[in-house]
């Protein structure tokens, strides 16, 4: 409505130095309910979002993240209010005491597109040649719905998407319903395990659905078959059985693998769903390992999610180590072989990475992935296989649905093994020089 409402212009603190301008620590979202309609031709998205929130402190105004889309109306507790929407931040007047619940509803629409962030490139809603992908890590969630865009603000979800009838819609969560509505089809998904905003996704395309074993669903072009598919995506049920043995029960209902007809540079992580280009249907190890990597993220990154982006090794190091574990299980190189291979390679690179806090410029540097995996291999070498895998299972069991820190992981290690491993973690996480692997 108007831009001159004083209570809605009070700036709120953002929450993570790696992602300035995102998130508001003064409140949290407990549940998102989204009603969306999308037109593929013309890239038009219309949304109605209802957010059930709780104040973490006394507030008179809160801020939501919403990029590139136009806000039509905002309601608080069912009452329409004035708002401001500037620089991808939607300021809303809310008067609530600490601990008090309130509901915010936002009607919005426009032509969604990716959001660019310094050091991190673009992320978010993106048109394909014929359809849509959403790649939101770490800052793209605001390109398609209003949210409190911080990884520690996990909420349950329900979303309904109206799309053209000849398109398939895949989203984070379980498919709760599908029905014809006019010339389109309305798809409803629910996610009952709390999810960070950046892990929510919406994939739209002309796909065929294949239900594999172990609750694995492949959503892909109908002509994607043959040895390359069998060597990569068809291996996911076996990967699921192996990872459940090592990490504990799969944390969600089904696992969906979307394969777009377009080639993609990298796979895309989201909760209960991963997205690949058809170029990842390959017998090459570099494709197969990434299929394993994205599945492992369901435990490490999605069920258990970092509180701050500085702890990104808790996601990428763990998923990278899962690649090495799968290689060994599949009868290829052992995890120990991979560890020594990558240790030798890292030893020849710059020693300027602090794994516990790499900075936004280096948070997705390959050294974070490999040194994070080496940290786990060093821990495994010191504590032995029984305690190591019990640490991983306990980590997931105790923290699914929660937000965590490196200190939390160190505490689980100490509890399971009976000994703090401060020297090991100091050397691998908090010193830039690469330590030797334990013999």
Automatic annotation (TrEMBL):
Location in the cell: Cytoplasm
Reactions accelerated catalytically: Release of an N-terminal amino acid, Xaa-|-Yaa- from a peptide, amide or arylamide. Xaa is preferably Ala, but may be most amino acids including Pro (slow action). When a terminal hydrophobic residue is followed by a prolyl residue, the two may be released as an intact Xaa-Pro dipeptide
SUPFAM superfamilies reported for this sequence: Leukotriene A4 hydrolase N-terminal domain, Metalloproteases ('zincins'), catalytic domain
Pfam family, one: Peptidase_M1
GO MF term (any one): aminopeptidase activity
Domain (Peptidase M1 membrane alanine aminopeptidase): residue spans on this chain: 235-428
Keyword Hydrolase among UniProt keywords: yes
EC number(s) from the headed UniProt entry: 3.4.11.2
Domain Aminopeptidase N-like N-terminal stretches: 31-199
EC supergroup of this enzyme: hydrolase
Required cofactor(s): Zn(2+)
PANTHER family xrefs: LEUKOTRIENE A-4 HYDROLASE
Entry's family note: Belongs to the peptidase M1 family.
Descriptive protein name: Aminopeptidase N
């Amino acid at each position: 409505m108007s831009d001159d409402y004083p209570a809605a212009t009070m700036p709120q603190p953002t929450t993570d130095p790696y992602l300035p301008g995102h998130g508001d620590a003064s409140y949290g979202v407990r549940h998102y309910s989204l009603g969306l309609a999308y037109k593929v031709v013309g890239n038009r998205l219309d949304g109605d979002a209802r957010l059930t929130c709780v104040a973490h402190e006394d507030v008179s105004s809160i801020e939501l993240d919403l990029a590139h889309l136009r806000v039509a109306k905002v309601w608080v507790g069912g009452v329409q209010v004035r708002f401001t929407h500037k620089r991808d931040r939607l300021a809303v007047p809310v008067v609530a005491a600490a601990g008090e619940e309130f509901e915010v509803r936002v009607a919005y629409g426009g032509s969604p597109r990716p959001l660019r962030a310094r050091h991190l490139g673009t992320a978010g809603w993106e048109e394909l040649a014929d359809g849509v992908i959403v790649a939101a890590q770490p800052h793209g969630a605001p390109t398609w719905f209003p949210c409190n865009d911080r990884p520690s603000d996990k909420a349950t979800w329900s979303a309904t998407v109206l799309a053209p009838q000849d398109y398939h819609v895949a989203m984070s969560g379980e498919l709760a319903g599908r029905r014809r509505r006019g010339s389109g089809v309305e798809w409803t998904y629910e996610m009952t395990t709390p999810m960070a905003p950046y892990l929510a996704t919406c994939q739209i395309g002309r796909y065929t659905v294949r239900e594999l074993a172990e609750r694995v669903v492949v959503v892909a072009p109908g002509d994607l078959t043959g040895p390359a598919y069998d060597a990569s995506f068809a291996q996911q049920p076996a990967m699921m059985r192996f990872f459940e043995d090592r990490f504990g029960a799969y944390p969600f209902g089904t696992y969906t693998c979307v394969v777009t007809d377009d080639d993609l540079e990298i796979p895309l992580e989201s909760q209960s769903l991963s997205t690949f280009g058809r170029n990842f249907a390959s017998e090459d190890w570099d494709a197969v390992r990434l299929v394993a990597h994205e599945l492992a993220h369901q435990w490490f990154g999605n069920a258990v999610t970092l509180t701050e982006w500085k702890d990104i090794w808790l996601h990428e190091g763990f998923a990278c180590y899962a690649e090495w574990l799968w290689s060994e299980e599949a009868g290829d190189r052992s995890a120990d072989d991979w560890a020594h291979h990558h240790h030798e390679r890292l030893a020849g690179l710059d020693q300027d990475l602090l794994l516990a806090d790499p900075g936004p410029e280096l948070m997705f540097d390959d050294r974070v992935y490999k040194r994070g995996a080496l940290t786990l291999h060093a821990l495994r070498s010191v504590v032995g296989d029984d305690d190591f895998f019990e640490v991983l299972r306990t980590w997931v069991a105790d923290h699914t649905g929660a937000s965590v820190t490196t200190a939390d992981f160190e505490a689980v290690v100490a509890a399971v093994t009976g000994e703090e491993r401060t020297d090991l973690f100091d050397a691998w996480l908090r010193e830039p020089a690469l330590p030797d692997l334990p013999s």
